[in-house]
Description:
216 residues; alpha/beta; 8-stranded parallel beta sheet
Amino acid sequence: MNHLIAPSILAADFANLQRDIEMINNSQADWFHVDIMDGMFVPNISFGFPVVKATKKHAAKPLDVHLMIVDPDRYLKDFADAGADSITVHYEACPHLHRTVQAIKQLGCKAAVAINPATPTALLKDIIADVDMVLVMSVNPGFGGQKFIEHTYTKIAEVKAMSANANPNLYIEVDGGVDGHNIAKLKAAGANVFVAGNAVFTAADQPAFIASLKQA
């Protein structure tokens, strides 16, 4: 499986969001990563349905919507209706995770589950066969620009090993501190979807930087 690049629009220039969306459209990126934060599950607030709808209007690539919110079941249909192609919920926020995953799939979206840096990968054993993707957070969720947590390599390798028989086509996504210095090592550990925010949008030549990640 060729690896995918999903720039995070959380790091885009919100005064020029359409411009940045068009840049991603015209780059070698594969998905748009859309971070939804509620100020409760994580100590930050990002944006909601209007920005997702606006992004979908101009995006030529799938929207990978990452819900960092409490009780995400309340809003699954709203995000699907707003244009999400895949919806990621946090293991830590879903007491009935199988039901949530089934609900996402019934809405016609890919279903993914994320785990925070302190959440053991072993907790995914009973759900890994049922999801399209696992997102391994390599920083504590809530803010961009954080330092990459080195233990992430081990966690990705554990998810890869767990999925070998149960779900060999699983997407393994990594989010937080991904850049040109660590993407090759993350890929070697088993990741195949890479979220990059600050690294993309602070690059002098953003399309060229995305291309370098794609070629890593």
